[in-house]
Design a protein that fits this description.
Strand content: under 5%
Largest sheet: none
Number of strands: 0
Shape: elongated
Order of helices and strands: HHHHHHHHHH
Length: 205
């Protein structure tokens, strides 16, 4: 919302609060344990994703820098500026589906992938499942809004921890995957089916 300037006429107090929350997230588990006592739902939500927004120097963004990013006076840091073009959204959707399923049929890996997807809203879960099944593609705006939760899905599947693979690195991995898919091309359907039939034939005596 902040990156896309979708906050409705926010006042200075909004950025003051965002800056303090971001600093609180950056302080780590030890500093927040006492303040989360009595708030189990908030603690559970933070376990699903609690990455602070860091500048290019590694320091958490405070109220001033967040306001400057929102009004366009400052460029977002590299890890925060995840722009996705409409012309690449379909290819990234296909790359996402193949990456998260490891090339397996959707019906073979549907349950663990949906269990790892952290979003509870039914409409978004249905859209995610449709993209994974190849029934539709994300638009660039949809993919932009989903990216952090898709990254959390990858982490929940045990592929890598958040420090090992950041959201911007995940996006770049999708782009590399999409380029490889384009280079490989798609075999003619009849040829591909014949190859599957040959592979399924019983071995000779």
């Amino acid at each position: 919302m902040l990156r896309n300037r979708k906050l409705a006429a926010p006042g200075p107090e909004v950025f003051l609060a965002l800056g303090r929350i971001n600093q609180w997230l950056a302080d780590g588990d030890g500093a927040r344990a006492s303040s989360l006592a009595g708030h189990p739902e908030l603690a559970a939500a933070l376990q699903e994703g609690d990455l602070p927004l860091l500048g290019d120097d590694g320091a958490p963004l405070g109220p001033g820098p967040l306001l400057e990013i929102f009004v366009g006076m400052r460029q977002p840091p590299a890890a925060f500026d995840l722009r996705i073009g409409e012309d690449e959204a379909a290819a990234l959707s296909a790359a996402l589906a193949e990456l998260l399923s490891a090339g397996q049929p959707w019906r073979a890996c549907r349950e663990p992938i949906l269990a790892a997807y952290p979003v509870e809203k039914a409409q978004r879960r249905e859209r995610f499942a449709a993209v994974m099944a190849g029934q539709r593609d994300y638009s660039s705006a949809e993919l932009d809004g989903e990216l952090l939760d898709l990254h959390r899905t990858l982490v929940a599947l045990g592929v890598a921890s958040e420090p090992e693979l950041s959201a911007d690195q995940f996006l770049e991995a999708l782009r590399r995957k999409a380029r490889l898919q384009k280079q490989a091309g798609t075999p003619e359907l009849a040829v591909a089916i014949r190859q599957e039939l040959v592979a399924a034939e019983p071995a000779g005596p």
